[in-house]
Amino acid sequence: MFLYFCIAFRSMPGCTAWLNNCVGYGNHRYFFLYMLYTTMGSLFLVVFGFEIGYRYLWLEHTDNWTELEPLEGHPVKINLSGHLIPVTHLNEYDEDIWPAHHDLPTPANAVDANSPYVLGRRRALWFMAFINLGVIMALGTLCCWHAKLISRGETSIEAHINQAQRKVMLIQKKIYIKPYNFGLRMNWRLFLGVVRGRSFWRTVLLPSWHKPEGNGLSFYTVDNYIVAANDEWP
């Protein structure tokens, strides 16, 4: 039913099960910004969380290194004054610098690498990584596709219509002009609502509730927008 509704009116970019509704005149801007900000948020987590995940998954819980030649002596620490202080007990926060072989007492609360707590955290990190990568690939691809449609001033259904019309005009040796393509800059301004004195910061970066341009039934085309520029054109 939703698909037939969209094809009948030919003014919807498509249908989505996520919204259980058609994405079109009234909510296309919100849907696109939702995809864009979700993709950017997932990309932010992957980029800035990669080092944390790498250190925890590969460096902190791998097999300890083995000394090629046993060292002689006693582990020491250097304080701020430069004095050498003998180490008599290994603290939990010193786990990264433990010697490969030692006979010093280890803390009783040291976390085992194979404990359910550590395994649970590792699985949670893997799950978060796969979820974020999946969102970036799936939602990012859909976002790029919608951005391409917006740049061309068409919906997904109109893209098929324009393609068919272009083939017909090509046979007739004519040039087909898309009726709602006002150029890259104007297409994005109309889509985001950055018209009638609205600013980019208040319209795009902050939540906005203004309605799209037009009434949803009739729209300006490339044939009459110049005439209407002195009237009510944004």
From TrEMBL:
Pfam families recorded: DHHC
Domain Palmitoyltransferase DHHC: 17-160
Extent of the signal sequence: 1-17
EC number of this enzyme: 2.3.1.225
Reaction catalysed by this enzyme: L-cysteinyl-[protein] + hexadecanoyl-CoA = S-hexadecanoyl-L-cysteinyl-[protein] + CoA
Cellular location(s): Membrane
Topology with respect to the bilayer: Multi-pass membrane protein
GO MF term set: protein-cysteine S-palmitoyltransferase activity
Membrane-spanning ranges: 31-50, 124-145
Cellular component aspect of the GO annotation: membrane
Keyword terms: Acyltransferase, Membrane, Signal, Transferase, Transmembrane, Transmembrane helix
Top class in the EC scheme: transferase
Top-rank taxon, per record: Eukaryota
Similarity annotation: Belongs to the DHHC palmitoyltransferase family.
UniProt free text on domains: The DHHC domain is required for palmitoyltransferase activity.
PANTHER family: PALMITOYLTRANSFERASE ZDHHC16
Full protein name: Palmitoyltransferase
The species this protein was found in: Glossina palpalis gambiensis
